[in-house]
Automatic annotation (TrEMBL):
Stated name of the protein: Uncharacterized protein
Cross-referenced SUPFAM superfamilies: Ribonuclease H-like (SSF53098)
Any Pfam family: zf-RVT
Listed InterPro entries: RNase_H-like, RNase_H-like_dom_plant, RNaseH-like_sf, RNaseH_domain, RNaseH_sf, RVT-Znf
Domain Reverse transcriptase zinc-binding: 50-136
RNase H type-1 domain boundaries: 188-306
Length: 342
């Protein structure tokens, strides 16, 4: 992939590599025959030699996400904080896709549980899975399809959050719409189990594409394990979402075990009746996505699950946000981003 003069052959690189990767290759001095062999070097010291001090400093350094324009462009978007947080997770490749599960040794099946595509990547979930693709095609002008559907993940996010054109004459720019359009409705679920009696309570919230409150719920259940309480909360939230007629729902839970059980290919035959019931809901005519999210993205559902009990086991529906939850929602929508180091 070098020209005769020893420089990179950009055309050849462009043929073989993703367009977003090419500039990174070009940023490396092209190899020459009289170079020494490649060797491992530590990038946090000017000499390339590892030191514990530099590793510690690098680990604590708060500047990684500030210096890179990719991160600052996300945190400066005038959208709800949870939308920014979600984009951050996308670009950090922290969404628990089936490909990621295989990579971590949690599963042997990387295929999409919705369409059967061999590889369920983040881009597949957010853009390329047929039901989602249909949605994007309905709002993206046809002349832009090739660019929109052909971009790599980083490039796709970058170009969409930089696009200033609007869908209509009096609507905000696309860069503000895009993070919200990544899902139609977001269902956050959580549960808590009190000690020592092990009584469980569920909570959850349905929010629209701009983070607006649609409906919340809370329910006390009996003696239950923390995992079953999490699963139960997901089930109740899904039943509520279906009854409201939503067709594209992204379920977010901070219980990785619950999400893993639901996404197991054998979920329909699970030992858990809760998992089987949730699995059966996936056969209804709607599109569901299940994502693990960090607890920081789930604080409203957490707050709802901890609301005082009305001493019965009936489902409480909140058409309007309870006052005690409002600060959590405001923090979620408008507060400064939670800081992460990884
Ligand atoms: Zn799919």
């Amino acid at each position: 992939m070098l020209h005769a003069d020893g420089n990179w052959n950009v055309s050849r690189l462009s043929e073989l590599l993703d367009q977003a990767v090419v500039p990174h290759v070009l940023g490396v001095l092209s190899p020459s025959f009289d170079d020494v062999r490649d060797r491992v070097a530590w990038r946090l010291t000017p000499t390339g030699a590892f030191t514990v001090a530099s590793a510690y400093e690098g680990f604590l350094s708060p500047s990684w996400d500030v210096c890179d324009p990719k991160w600052s462009s996300i945190w400066s978007l005038p959208v709800a904080q949870r939308a920014r947080m979600f984009l951050w997770l996308v670009l950090r490749q922290r969404l628990m896709t089936n490909v990621e599960r295989v990579r971590r040794g949690l599963s042997s099946d990387p295929s999409c549980s919705s369409c059967g595509c061999y590889s369920e990547t983040i881009l597949h979930i957010l853009r390329d899975c047929p039901p989602v693709r249909s949605f994007w095609k309905s709002i993206i002008p046809q002349v832009e399809h090739e660019c929109f559907f052909g971009a790599s993940l980083d490039h796709w996010v970058a170009m969409n959050i930089k696009t200033s054109r609007a869908l209509g004459p009096s609507t905000p720019p696309w860069s503000c719409f895009f993070p919200s359009f990544l899902w139609q409705v977001c269902l956050n679920t959580d549960a808590s189990v009190s000690l020592p009696d092990h009584l469980g309570s569920l909570g959850g919230v349905l929010r629209g594409s701009s983070g607006d409150w649609l409906r919340g719920y809370r329910q006390s259940v009996g003696v239950v394990s923390p995992l079953n309480a999490e699963l139960w909360s997901i089930l109740v939230g899904l039943q509520l979402a279906f009854s409201m007629g939503f067709s594209r729902v992204q379920v977010q839970s901070d219980s990785s075990v619950a999400i893993r059980l639901i996404l197991d290919p054998m979920a329909a035959n699970s030992f858990s009746s809760l998992v089987r019931r949730i699995s059966s809901l996936q056969n209804l005519p709607w599109s569901l996505r299940f994502l693990w999210v960090p607890r920081e993205m789930n604080m409203v559902a957490d707050g709802l699950s901890k609301l005082p009990s009305l001493n019965d086991f009936h489902l409480q529906i909140f058409d309007n946000i309870p006052e005690s939850i409002r600060p959590l929602l405001v923090r979620d929508r408008e507060g400064p981003p939670y800081r992460h180091r990884c």
